[in-house]
Amino acid sequence: xxxxxxxxxxxxxxxxxxxxxxxxxxxxxxxxxxxxxxxxxxxxxxxxxxxxxxxxxxxxxxxxxxxxxxxxxxxxxxxxxxxxxxxxxxxxxxxxxxxxxxxxxxxxxxxxxxxxxxxxxxxxxxxxxxxxxxxxxxxxxxxxxxxxxxxxxxxxxxxxxxxxxxxxxxxxxxxxxxxxxxxxxxxxxxxxxxxxxxxxxxxxxxxxxxxxxxxxxxxxxxxxxx
Length: 226
What we know:
Blueprint: H1 13-26, H2 30-88, E1 94-100, H3 108-118, E2 128-132, E3 135-141, H4 144-155, E4 160-164, E5 167-172, E6 181-183, E7 194-197, E8 207-211, E9 219-225
Antiparallel strand pairs: 1-9, 2-3, 2-9, 4-5, 5-6, 6-7, 7-8
Keywords: Membrane, Transmembrane, Transmembrane helix
């Protein structure tokens, strides 16, 4: 029997159910897609935060390592610097330096001279330099035995005459009750031109550097031992 062309095609309930199941399986709802994308974003965000935390930790660790290296380097360098400074500075290094005014009897300069000479307590010295504002270089003695003898003579107010490098040094007293003087002129208590220091002479003839040693012009005079 032939079917009428206009008759509707009937599909069994079993086929409809199977078709609906397949469609539901292969085409997830829009909400499910959105949820999955959100989850992916959350995972990506969490991964970025983890990487950021790892980067911060790595930077902190690197900074601590650099700080540790700097501390180790400082611990190595500081003792070396101290040793170098110790070798450059002598514990016996001492300097007398005062300004003397022309025509004026020194007072504070005399007190400082006595403190200086009594402080020459080292058993030996290797260098002495006499200089002043008239001659910043002055005269230097580097013979240890000569330098030590001059220092001891000044400390104990002893008379001494010694020649070094063509220069005759004299240590002695020019007037009773005064501290001893030192001169490179070779003559005590004399106004010979040259290098003489008489800080406690008792009048304005306190000496001078590289010139007149009596009634000299205002100047600074210095004596250094080490």
